[in-house]
Design goal:
Layout: E1 5-6, E2 9-17, H1 20-29, E3 36-43, E4 61-68, H2 81-97, E5 102-104, E6 108-111, E7 114-126, E8 129-140, H3 156-160, H4 166-187, H5 190-196, E9 206-209, E10 212-219, E11 225-229, E12 235-238, E13 245-247
Parallel strand pairs: 2-3
Antiparallel strand pairs: 1-2, 3-4, 4-8, 5-6, 6-7, 7-8, 9-10, 9-13, 10-11, 11-12
Helix pairs in contact: 2-4, 2-5
Length: about 250
């Protein structure tokens, strides 16, 4: 895919890299301004949320980071980018595979109760504006994408019997992402969340928030999850960067 463009994105494939998110950060700091999708054959130091290691072996998944520059977006709204990718990729995988892929709040994609994809956004700021975003995605496509001890995770091939090629996914995903990005920049996150909520499998379920039992009630207009704690009845909005949310007995 070297030198290709899809929708508004330049595709930049690399055979092996430490982390596509780290590479996006390096490029942004060098002053790069072209919307670029860094597509890795493998990552040797992939990372997920809360600094968890993300295993990214060669040929087993879609390991990528989108580097883009939504300079109209205020700094406090930059974290909303993960909801764009969650909606766009969930819809793309449903269309390609026919499987009922869902979103576990905030931005893990799940299928048959297993995590198949995680996302991580990292940002740079200039004053009160968002200067750049590196939006990383790790999608487990094939058997061997993850170590067997990760019992809550799986791959598309293991669940559906088919592993789409990265190019097939990107051809559908990137135009959908661009559509949502335009909405986000012009109208904010609220209209994106209208499309997100029907895909979110966490809502209405009993969950654990940092290990404490609660019920997931709603996704608020800023993307926070409103929960009611089981023991106290307290209703609170929790932010993705502050908490880990899992199901009571399994991942969702």
């Amino acid at each position: 895919m070297e030198g290709r463009e899809i929708s508004s994105w330049k595709i930049d494939p690399v055979e092996s890299i430490d982390s596509t998110n780290l590479e996006a950060r390096r490029r942004a700091r060098r002053g790069e301004k072209r919307k670029t999708l860094i597509l890795a054959g493998e990552q040797t130091a992939g990372r997920g949320r809360m600094e968890r290691r993300w295993v990214s072996p060669a040929g087993a998944g879609l390991w990528m980071t989108q580097l883009f520059f939504p300079e109209k977006v205020p700094a406090e709204r930059a974290g909303g980018a993960v909801f764009l990718s969650a909606v766009a990729l969930c819809r793309t995988l449903r269309e390609i595979t026919g499987a009922q892929v869902g979103v576990k709040w905030p931005n893990d994609l799940v299928l048959s109760g297993k995590k198949i994809c995680g996302m991580l956004a990292e940002c740079g700021f200039q004053g009160d504006r968002c200067a750049w975003i590196g939006l990383g995605t790790g999608l487990n496509l094939r058997k061997g994408a993850l170590p067997p001890e990760l019992i809550y995770a799986s791959s598309l091939e293991e669940i559906t019997g088919r592993a789409p090629e990265p190019e097939e996914i990107l051809e559908k995903y990137l135009p959908e992402f661009d559509r949502l990005e335009k909405i986000w920049e012009e109208a904010g996150l609220a209209p994106v969340l209208e499309e997100y909520r029907p895909l979110c499998v966490s809502l209405g379920k009993d969950v654990r928030v940092n290990g404490v039992a609660a019920r997931a009630l709603e996704v608020e207009k800023n993307g926070a999850l409103r929960v009611r704690y089981a023991e106290t009845g307290e209703v609170r909005a929790v932010l993705a960067g502050d908490v880990s949310v899992r199901g009571m007995t399994d991942y969702i």
